[in-house]
Amino acid sequence: MPYSSAGELAREQKYVATLYERLDVLRVRTRGHLDEVLAQGATGTHQNRSERDSFADMYAQRLARLWAVEHGLCFGRLDNADGGRLYIGRIGLADDDQERMLIDWRAPVAQPFYRATPAAPMGVTRRRHLQTRGRTVTNVDDDLLDLDGLTDADRASLNGEAALLAALGEKRTGRMRDIVATIQSEQDAIIRGDLNGVLVVQGGPGTGKTVVALHRAAYLLYTYRERLERRGVLILGPNLTFLRYIEHVLPSLGETDVLLSTVGELYPGVTGTRWEPPEAAAIKGGIRMADVIGKAVRDRQRVPSAPVEIRLDKFTLKLDRQTFEAARSRAVRSRRPHNEARAVFVRHLLNTLTRQAARQLGRGMLADDDFADLREDLRTETPVRTALNRLWPYLTPQQLLIGLYTSKERMADAGLAPAECDLLLREPPRPGENWWSEADAPLLDEAAELLGEIDEGVLRAARRAEEEREEQLAYAREVLELTGMADIMDAERFAARQRADDVYLTTAERAAKDRTWAFGHVIVDEAQELSPMAWRTVMRRCPTRSMTVVGDIAQTGSAAGAASWGRVLDPYVKGRWREAGLSVNYRTPAEIMVVAADVLGLVGPGLKAPDSVRETGERPWSARVADPVTGLAPLVRREIVPDGRLAVIVPHTREAELGAALVAGVPDAVAGPGPGALDAPVCVLTVAEAKGLEFDSVIVVEPGEILRESPRGPSDLYVALTRATRRLGVIHSEPLPHALESLVLRAD
Ligand SMILES: Nc1ncnc2c1ncn2[C@@H]1O[C@H](COP(=O)(O)OP(=O)(O)OP(=O)(O)O)[C@@H](O)[C@H]1O
């Protein structure tokens, strides 16, 4: 019920102005504290210095939060039946007497703002939405919750329509925005759901799964701060473009202990972004690969069938099969990972070699010390080291997988069928080559579990780190001299920051570097895409199984992705996961969803598309061209949205040529998912690259080819059609698939 009388607006304006005044005061104060701490200089004990750094970090973070809430500081008001009144906003504010002025949206008392309905008013008589531009209140919009006559069924689930529809109608900026002002009640129930256990959020396109997941992260960090601050929250998204799309939502909600990552980046030091055929990715994603990797490791612990001779200057030593077998079975019985079990294997062989050597030197029984000396001498002999390394090599996960993929014989020995070996066979990496794909990251992780640490590597790394420290110290002195900062920061500390010394890292930064990090909560977005091997990796990162899994089974594009949530989760949390649904599409207008629903019919009978919350009056169109390479650019130029974003979604195999044609024919068009894709007025993407994103207008090219391109073609086409917030067009040269026959023919 709109209620924007001039008097009401003026009253709200007055209150909002006092909130901004308070915000300004707090900013000035916090800045003052920060300056004071920094001005203390670089003197004092190490402890003093690190205390000062912690304070400086705290004030800097607080200041960043105070700046992040400038836009839409206050967006709501609750009038309670007891006469009390609460203003709801992006953060909590109190005056100097600790009287609260503004309630953080995540606080329990703010919950009725999102949940109260006429049927269950939760003690609220009126909920007011405040719309602001800058610091000016432009509109107020009320839900009167105590009026007997207000029984409209929609009101029970959908609140503050005017505010919501205003938010949905805005042009897209290429970055996701927060929705704290317009969270709907079915979304709020998910956001505030219990921290423990696995919560699955199933919902069709545009139902707010991503945005709800991000708000849930902010809510959990606020509510369970102590528990989550130390361990952090991991949010997994489908690709790097998507992470750029969502990365600003959380800081604007005031959260920093969150690591955003793709599965391809989960293994530290590797960025798995190389494209590979879906069939190859499907093999690598299958759970059978856990056995394959296990066999590949055991294959590197081979016992040679013939004896091995080791020639030294003075004599020749010989190791026979029996000795190998004994050493190997001891190492295996130790149940340690490969690199750690190596010590057991090597010790046994070295003892045998030392006894042989003693005999050959005519020294018979040796005293313990002499025996140890001789063993040490042998251990450092190059031929001995070479022989031992060949028998049981130290291996990094990368070495293991490169060794496997580059040899059909090894792959076959590890249990892969000939056709699978053909698909996975690779040339070894060239320097600087982007060799790893997303599906490799979970296999590297699996290998790391089975291989364990490399002692020698750790030692070498420590020596290297010491050398680097010296170099960085010299560099730091130079920089501080040059920048004139020498008086507020000492070189030692500056160098430590450059080294990213763990003391100075945020929880998220530390977690990103550590494969064995256990997160306090893990959120998986577009979770339907994860393969069984990827789930194994994700579960390792979350031993407490406190997770939020959001996705849509109907949108599964990856051949190794999920066909049902039970199949995915039962192996880990059978009977311990719960499912919530989102049913309203806030992105895609009804006119587009009619078309998308026909395609959903191809994905599976009986699947239901979510209901759109709005109509635009614009019918989606199709246009047939003789050749998209020449016919695309003129049509795209006509569809460009002033100050908005248009995406051209193309079959994977056509991305290069169509991208080049558009870059040549359309000003400022960008091809591929690089850093510019989100900001450009026109971008060209494949379905996989457009996953999770949205644009004002979308043009899908050659839908028939998208359908044929992968075993999950119908899901891919469904995803492509549902990326638009306003307009949709389809361009094709081959006949239009039947499911798209309801498109109107474009006349021009
Ligand atoms: N309560 C809300 N208020 C305002 N906007 C909303 C609300 N809920 C969702 N939206 C908007 O709807 C759009 C779709 O949301 P989101 O991307 O989270 O959906 P999704 O379910 O993850 O979609 P998909 O599965 O298609 O990727 C976004 O622009 C989001 O900001």
TrEMBL record:
<dbReference type="InterPro" id="IPR027351">
    <property type="entry name" value="(+)RNA_virus_helicase_core_dom"/>
</dbReference>
<dbReference type="InterPro" id="IPR000212">
    <property type="entry name" value="DNA_helicase_UvrD/REP"/>
</dbReference>
<dbReference type="GO" id="GO:0005524">
    <property type="term" value="F:ATP binding"/>
</dbReference>
<keyword id="KW-0547">Nucleotide-binding</keyword>
<dbReference type="InterPro" id="IPR027417">
    <property type="entry name" value="P-loop_NTPase"/>
</dbReference>
<protein>
    <submittedName>
        <fullName>ATP-binding domain-containing protein</fullName>
    </submittedName>
</protein>
<dbReference type="InterPro" id="IPR014016">
    <property type="entry name" value="UvrD-like_ATP-bd"/>
</dbReference>
<keyword id="KW-0378">Hydrolase</keyword>
<keyword id="KW-0347">Helicase</keyword>
<dbReference type="Pfam" id="PF01443">
    <property type="entry name" value="Viral_helicase1"/>
</dbReference>
<keyword id="KW-0067">ATP-binding</keyword>
<feature type="binding site">
    <location>
        <begin position="203"/>
        <end position="210"/>
    </location>
    <ligand>
        <name>ATP</name>
    </ligand>
</feature>
<feature type="domain" description="UvrD-like helicase ATP-binding">
    <location>
        <begin position="182"/>
        <end position="589"/>
    </location>
</feature>
